[in-house]
Structures are given as structure tokens and as C-alpha cells.
Amino acid sequence: MAKYLPLFPLSIVVFPGEKLNLHIFEPRYKQLVLDCIENEKTFGIPTYIQSNVGVYGTEMEILEVEKTHANGEMDIRTKGKNIFKIEQFDKMAPGRLYAGGQVEVFENDFQEDIMTKLKIKDLLQKLYNSLGLEKLFTDLLEDFKSYDIGHHLGLNTEQEYTLLQLRTEIERQEAILQHLQQVVPIVKATEQLKERVKQNGHFKNLTPPNF
């Protein structure tokens, strides 16, 4: 589905369903928020990456303006809705201070693979246990989709941006599984190294080999 969106580039990746609190202080983005509220419209957050506005981003809805400050700055609560790709980018939307763009909104397939999900869950538990983050594992994994754990995998911005571009849950699951299969052994090896370092200097009760 094609539409024109006000755009608010940021150096982050926002996933569908994610809630994001923003402090709005620049005049152009104060105008953007007021326009969206007045016209009951959404806006887009494309990821600003490698010194450029990326072509992929997330459509956002404004849930509420929590506070308006005396100088016009605002604290707002937003939530991610859909992924889009920018077809045409305008540094300034017609007659406005903020950027805008013609975008194509993705049809997103959330059909998951249960076996892959179980493998991800097992690896995440091992990862969080190694890092001492057992509570995070418990909080996250009652029932989850890829987007729910996207910021809790140790991905950098470029990797999260790649994940954002995948249009099916199965593709996202495969990418996450591959990442965890690479990361978990490294983290576990680091933990073993830490234990070996701690043991240095301690008196050891060792049994000599028989030869």
C-alpha cells in the first residue's frame, strides 16, 4: 500500500509493536507532531544509518502527548505499526519544515516455524544464563515474535536494520537463529575464560597423573 508520510529520521531501528517515548524539541518535529495529531495521521521513522536516511523504516502512531512544556517541547508516547520502504524522499514535505516521503508499506507475514522458535528459545536461555540475565529471559519468552526480542539479541544497528527489512517471520527466525548460533559459543567461551582467570593464584589440590 502506497502513502505519503511525514518522516522523522533517527539513528535507531524501531520494530512493529514497539513502544517508543520521544522528547520533541526541534521546531520541525514539533510541527510534525502537531500536524499528525490534528489530522489523525501516522508518521515514519526511517533509520538514519551510515550518514544517510535509510530507505526502510517503521510507520508510527502517536498514542498520547504525555506533557507539553512551556517552550512548546513535548514528551510523546508512540508505537510502531508497519514496515515501509521509501520510494521518494523529500528533505522538506510540501509547505512543511519536516521531511516527508512517498512510501510503500509492507504486507508482513507473521506465520512462524515452531521448531525454529524452540531452538531460538533454547539458545536465548543459554545466552542470558551466561550473561546473568535470567530474569530478562523469563520476562521476554512467555510467547514471543522476532520483533519482541529484536533489541535483546546483541545486534548492532546495521544488523537490526537488516532484520527490519525481512518480510516474513520465518526469514526473521532464521536470521536470529543463525546469529545466536554464532554468538552463544563465544559468550560461553568467554565465561569459561573468566573462570580460569579467577583460579590463577589459588592453591590447587591436584592429583598427579600415574605414569
UniProtKB/TrEMBL annotation:
Origin organism lineage: Bacteria, Pseudomonadati, Bacteroidota, Cytophagia, Cytophagales
Residues of the Lon N-terminal domain: 4-182
Name by which UniProt lists this protein: LON peptidase substrate-binding domain-containing protein
Pfam families: LON_substr_bdg
